[in-house]
């Protein structure tokens, strides 16, 4: 297998979480297979995550930490995002990182739209894996919520800037998981990391 450049973003705002455990687990397994891995923990980043009154012509300059993370995105072949689902969406700080960092001229091109008239992605040629924890059972997510967060992340966020395909792994019952469940989840993430998938 050709070594990949893998960026792992632990998208949980707390210092200790299942998301961090999965990020570290994936990184260890991928490095053991010879892949070049960078890992970023959202909890360690200090930035203003309010897009505020900015627009695409007059947005806030990126703080050095955001500029570095964006450069890591540009460097990567494969993105791994670990995150909880809170209130049907992403944690505010993670959403703020996306709001601030995914800017025109760096992640998408509004001046040269594609054939459908949408801005052209500038991070194309990359793949992604999103590992989500939640308390919502998978069957309920499918039947009632129609996998709304998955559709958003695949089509309107990561796919919009070029990450295709984006694959998902869902672990439910995450607030008070049984130890054997956590061990199974870690084993699954280890396999994903070893396969760089």
Automatic annotation (TrEMBL):
GO terms for molecular function: NAD(P)H dehydrogenase (quinone) activity. Residues 4-187 form the Flavodoxin-like fold domain. SUPFAM superfamilies: Flavoproteins (SSF52218). Keywords: Oxidoreductase. GO terms for cellular component: cytosol. InterPro entries: Flavodoxin_fold, Flavoprotein-like_sf, NAD(P)H_dehydrogenase_qn. Coiled coil: none annotated. Belongs to the NAD(P)H dehydrogenase (quinone) family. This is Flavodoxin-like fold domain-containing protein. It comes from Ruegeria arenilitoris.
